[in-house]
Task: structure prediction
Amino acid sequence: MDNFFSKLAELFTTPEYIDSLLHGFLLTLQIAFFAVLIGFVLGLIIALVETGKSKWLAPLRFVFRVYVTVIRGTPMALQLFIMFFVIFAIRDFPQVVTAILAFAFNSAAYCSEIIRGGILSVDTGQTEAGLALGLPYRTVFLKIVMPQAIKNIIPALGNEVITVIKETAIVSMVGMYDLNMAAKDIGSGQNMASYVVPMFVAALFYLAVVYLITVIIKIVEKRMRRSDARA
Amino acid sequence: MPERRLEISVRGLKKSFGDNKVLNGIDFDLYDGEKVVVLGPSGSGKSTFLRCINRLEEPTAGEVFFDDTLITDKNIQAMRGKIGMVFQHFNLINNLSVMENLTLAPVKLHKFSADEADAKARKLLKHIGLLNKVDSFPASLSGGQKQRVAIIRALMMEPKVLLFDEPTSALDPESIGDVLSLIHEVVNNGMTTIIVTHEMNFAREIASRVVFIDKGRIIEEGTPSQFFSHPKTPRVKEFLGKVL
Ligand SMILES: Nc1ncnc2c1ncn2[C@@H]1O[C@H](COP(=O)(O)OP(=O)(O)OP(=O)(O)O)[C@@H](O)[C@H]1O
Ligand SMILES: [Mg+2]
Result:
């Protein structure tokens, strides 16, 4: 135990270690943030096309269906490898961009499923009421369907964000220096020569972010639930 | 009888859902000021008939005219502003307050300015005794309150015709009276209406004409006294025997 605390003290008093840790942490956050952002936008587009009624979107709908099936049916690590060693096997192409896109393309598939489910979960009576008043479909969708859909999917989207953050740890498999990799590096033989403490600290970092997001989601959910009960 | 203006005219209306032929050629005229009650057994196509008029369902064949204008996909939006609808399940917009439910369409569609719509909404809410619910969300209203708000929501657009699809079927017995008396009042003020209902006493009181639909066809129509006291077809006799 004494050893654990002395190692902990060592980690936090050695500038190089802290530096490595923060660097890794920053990269993790960077990848996750942009991946979630891009993934959500792409997922929204896919969901809109899939739930749309227009006939000439049918071919696109088919393409997206296949896309979602492939993404959801293959391991994230494999998708990452394909992005790194096949699609973006371009010299000097920034690794971080490749990683962001890999996670964004993955998350888009999951987000699209979540958003699609949310849109379909809104009672058709809501749409009909809007249309029956003479409102254009666009307005009905934006003012009535979408707000209700979003309210329904906030928890699932929150989960998706958390999943992406944790999954980014696999970028260490392609040699990127994220939080996970930083922990391994600090614990290696040339450095602290003990993995326990750095990995424990890395776990705390991940936990803190996930916890923060959980809290934010809860607050957003609560605010959105106003219309369920307000008298 | 003075010459009356034709509001809605339905010609050869057919509607199928896949192989299920729900409407099999409906011809129907609705004149200004008429209060038509549509009766018929469950599944006979009453709701589908109403929903084909404002195109919540796309007709398979036939035409619907409003004010001598053929209703098409192009003009349906404008038409819907003139043909209000009240649903069995109220369909108040869950994410909007009572006030927003009332003002969204008239303001968006430039029927009224925001201030005018607000004032009109308050006046109507006051009239039905629900002014205190102006900022409430639908989830906090009782069924009867929801349906009365839904009725004045339709009135906000100042429609020329109002369609009611079983407006009291989803209500508890205590709320039915409130909703029926509001409908009574709206109709007595001269609103042209088509009402699908299973409330026979209400139908008899309110109708200027009763239309009976069976298997997607109008098989009998007449004044309430003719219809209820001297039904012509065996099918209607059988129906009335069960419900009266
Ligand atoms: N959207 C739909 N898709 C498929 N079938 C439908 C749809 N809407 C209605 N139907 C079918 O059309 C038939 C007539 O339904 P409709 O709701 O018009 O009857 P109704 O006379 O209003 O009955 P009720 O008195 O029970 O309300 C039924 O067989 C129903 O299953
Ligand atoms: Mg019905």
